[in-house]
Structures are given as structure tokens and as C-alpha cells.
């Protein structure tokens, strides 16, 4: 009998003799393969692994958002208001998420609030999921006027809008418009180091 | 420097600074950049001064690509057409950078004006300078001047972009009605979510 066939025959005998152990081994191997492929995929996609279940957006008024900021006292918090229909918002999102990934363990929290109309909320959830967002995010559930003024009276309502809070929950910066990664780092890092 | 010169210099600096900071035109001020000619979809070159109406003047910063504009556009057309017929000057201004946002091109503006039945000019703010002078930051954003030419209402069309049937506060319509009867709008400034104006780089 050719050598290869003899080896397969032998292995087959071993399987029959110790099926439980072999199945565990096979499951372990399968998990390793899947994990390995996922790691490769995430590396290929710039570490953004889509999450399987879309992030649900919790409805929030401006008061709710401020409460979330207060709950995060001790961390530096960046609130970013965005919408699926807002091109600069979508362009900025990867940089915000990069910042969040890099600085989370230094006490930085990103609070994303979608200002999409209700019918667009599923699209917002899907977009966030495709960007690998697995943390809780929010959706505006208040009239425009009250929401805008409730967050900052300087805000005209244009998107994107960002508010930055220090570790004591004090608002230290507000800006409208897309910010580059460099600008975000420049705004956030001094607050992380300073405290 | 004389006192008068110093005050003038300070006021000029304050105005320039406020434009740079994007602080919008405040109530009771007159329209800035009012003589700047802007190309309309029908080929005419028009300024705010030239379209100003006997009853008042409505300037709306708008564009083609923004979903909030698309949601409100029917209402913008209705109000613009109705109040132009009543003696208001009406002009809708697109200040966006068409290189960055090709959907805001002149051709699409022409198509949109036709599709929506605009009976008023839809013009191009070719340098975004008019938007800068007004301190406008989003589309749509309305500025209503009364018969004497001072700003009496600034802000949103109404309180519900998504659904015209669910509007509870008709901000712009009420403001136009007030000015038409010679009164001041009771609500002078409102805000709404909108797309940021895509200023052309100067």
C-alpha cells in the first residue's frame, strides 16, 4: 500500500478510538482558523471589523447627552453630532473612531449623536456597524431648536458639530465642521495629559 | 489716532472678526454684500439690492445636494412664489464649492429650479463671499428683511424638515405674514439642523 494511504488509514483508526478528543481538537482548529481569518481581514481593513449586529441608537435629548457627559466624569469626552446624509460627517467618522480606539485606555470617551430624521435611523445604525462601532451611540430625539440650544447656543445647527469636555465635565471647546485627525489629537491629548 | 478713527477701526475689526468667526448677521442690520452680482439660472446677473421688494426681501442660502434642503424645497418654492407675488423680493443663493460638490453645479441648479417651479431667481454665490458676509453657515438658512431693509427674521423654514404635515411652527411663513402687514415677526431667530455650507477656499 502506498505510504500516504497507510498514514491516512492510521489516522482514521485514531479518530475512531478517541472521537471526543478529536472533535474538540477539530473545533479548536476551526475556531483558530476563523479567528485567524478575522484577524487577517481586520488587518487588511485597517483594523475595522464590521460588527454583526448593528449598533442600536439610543434616543436622546440634549439633556440626556449632557447627562452622559456627566456620567463620564474622570474621562475626557468628545460629543460629535453627525448624520448619514452629511458628507463631511462621514469623512470625519473614521478619524474619530481611530482616536477613540487609540485613547480609550487613557480615559477618552467618544459620544456619537446622530441627527438623522427618524426614518433614517436604521441607515445610521448600519453605517456605524460597517465602521465597527460596537459601543452605545445616540440619536437626537428632540426638536432641532431645543437640541441645538441645549448643547451649545453658539451652534447654528450645521453638521458636523463637536463639543469637548475635560475630565471635570467642563466644556472647553466647541466647533462646527469637519476636523482632521491631527486637529482632534491636538485638542484632546492636552486634556488627557493635563489632569 | 483720533477718537473717531479709533472707534471706526475697532468697529471695522469687530465686523471683520465676526465674519471670520462666522457669527451671523444680527437682527436690525442691513443686508451685507447687497450689490454683489450673482448669476441666476435664467442667465441674468442679479444683486440683492436689485431684487429687493417694496414689502421686504427674502434671502435663502440653499443648494442642490443637501437632504434638508430637499426636504424643505417644496415649501421654499411655495413661500417664495407666494410672497414674491405679494411684493417681496425673493432670492435663493447657492454658495457651495461645486468642485467639491458637483451636484451643486449650475446645470443642476437650473434643473432644480425648473422642477420645483421657482418663479424667483436661484443664483450662484461664485466666491462664497455673500455667504461669508452674512455669516451663513448652513443650508437652508433664511434671512428676511423688512420693507426698510433691516433684518427681522433669521433661521429655519419651520420646525419639521421630515414631514410638512407635522409642522407645528411655521417660522418663515409667520415672519413673512408679519412683515407683509407691516409688523415685526414675534419669533426673530430660530435654528435647525442643516448641511454646513461648503465655502469655496478664498
Q: What do these coordinates show?
A:
The complex is a heterodimer of chains A (195) and B (202). Chain A has 195 residues and is α/β, with parallel strands linked by helices. In chain A, 51% of the residues lie in helices and 18% in strands. Chain A contains seven helices and seven strands. In chain A, helix 3 (62-71) runs parallel beside helix 6 (144-151). Chain A is globular and about 70 Å long. Chain B is 34% helix and 18% strand. In chain B, the strands form two sheets. A seven-stranded mixed β-sheet of chain B has the order 2-1-5-4-3-7-8. A two-stranded antiparallel sheet of chain B has the order 6-9. In chain B, a hairpin with a 4-residue loop joins strand 1 (38-40) and strand 2. The interface between A and B is medium-sized, with 24 and 22 residues. Strand 5 of chain A pairs parallel with strand 9 of chain B, so a sheet runs across the interface.
Provide a concise account of the structure shown.
The complex is a heterodimer of chains A (195) and B (202). Chain A has 195 residues and is α/β, with parallel strands linked by helices. Chain A contains 7 helices and 7 strands.
